[in-house]
Design brief:
It is built from eleven helices and 18 strands. The strands form four sheets. Strands 3, 4, 5, 9, 10, 17 and 18 form a seven-stranded mixed sheet that branches. Helix 4 packs across helix 10.
């Protein structure tokens, strides 16, 4: 099969590699669509260094079951499916209480985090545990379905962890693809005023189309003042989905009584300060969220199946796998939203 293999930073090569065969309890999927995540781009360009070579990147896939291993009953050859990139043992204490994304024996297909990193889906086929396979509803396209993992992460952060409520005034800092999904989840959940903050006018225009009530570019104004001009009493909920430490500091500066924050986008080990007493007396609440789990995946599928979230609205570019290097170049451009690879 054809696969994009990362041999070193800035050394991504298209190669013929063996088609993976499923073992007992595993499923091989013919990949139809795979999202190009910013973490994939950072691995390819050496921006993040926790990479074991060689690696086939790509951890946002959907496709068709090509083969099943012994003992697999809930899907069969020909079924249209979605893959959760993170695998889990199901037996450790974290798994037993439902926090499978904390699993002590976790693995990932094409992503990052666990030491056990397996080939991903910038390839024609991927193999994974049957427990990481979800049936794709027929009305959802493969391009939309492959976005289940990031949509599920947005649902987990906005709804499950930060408990957004109907009517909350929300600020989304960073409107890349994950920020867009957070914005769409917040809108579907009944946000009141929904403020999108980004340095890219291209991203902000997409946020407007997706339902943001106000747009703020921090390079053109004092972002905190602009937010308080719109919401004089301050926001109910702020999610940082950008990544830079400046975004986290902006989030913290928006503190008022009862504010809920979610540190969602930053993955680098940088520091920021909190006033302990002020945080105490304001009863501010900080959450953070990473990865996904079966509950979040199932809820993301439900949102898409019912038409409340449509990832097609966030997709800006599509490339065949043979044009993966052009896709990498687009990923480095501000004039894009979600990029999809078709193996």
């Amino acid at each position: 099969m054809l696969a994009a293999v990362l041999h070193d930073f800035n050394r991504l090569e298209l190669e013929e590699v063996p088609v993976p065969e499923p073992k007992a309890g595993e499923v091989t999927v013919r990949i139809k669509s795979c999202g190009f995540c910013a973490t994939d781009y950072k691995a390819i360009k050496g921006i993040r260094r926790n990479v074991t070579f060689p690696l086939i990147p790509g951890h946002e896939p959907a496709g068709i079951v090509a083969a099943v291993g012994a003992g697999v009953k809930h899907v069969k050859e020909g079924d249209e499916v979605i893959i959760q990139p993170s695998g889990f043992c199901g037996f450790c204490p974290h798994c037993r209480v439902g926090n499978t994304h904390y699993c002590a024996h976790s693995y990932t297909t094409g992503g990052d985090g666990p030491e056990d990193t397996r080939p991903g889906s910038f390839a024609e086929y991927t193999v994974t545990q049957a427990t990481s396979i979800y049936k794709k509803p027929p009305q959802i396209s493969f391009d939309a379905a492959c976005q289940t993992e990031p949509v599920s992460g947005a649902w987990k952060g906005v709804i499950y962890f930060s408990e957004m409520k109907v009517g909350d005034d929300a600020v989304i800092i960073g409107t890349g693809s994950i920020g867009m999904y957070c914005l769409m989840v917040a809108k579907a959940a009944g946000a009141g005023r929904l403020i999108a903050v980004d340095v890219s006018e291209y991203a902000l225009e997409t946020a407007r189309k997706l339902g943001a009530t106000h747009l703020i570019n921090p390079t053109q104004c004092d972002a905190k003042q602009a937010i308080y001009d719109i919401i004089p009493e301050g926001p109910d909920f702020v999610i940082e989905a950008a990544g830079p430490i400046e975004a986290v500091k902006l989030m913290v500066s928006l503190l008022r009584r009862g504010t809920r924050w979610n540190v969602f986008g930053i993955t680098t080990h940088e520091t920021f300060e909190l006033d302990g007493g002020l945080t105490h007396f304001m009863e501010a609440r900080m959450d953070s969220s990473f990865g996904t789990n079966p509950m979040a995946m199932q809820n993301a599928i439900r949102l898409m199946e019912r038409g409340l979230i449509d990832p097609e609205q966030v997709i800006s570019h599509r490339f065949p796998l043979t044009e993966i290097h052009q896709a990498v170049e687009i990923m480095g451009s501000p004039e894009r939203n979600k990029v999809i690879i078709h193996p």
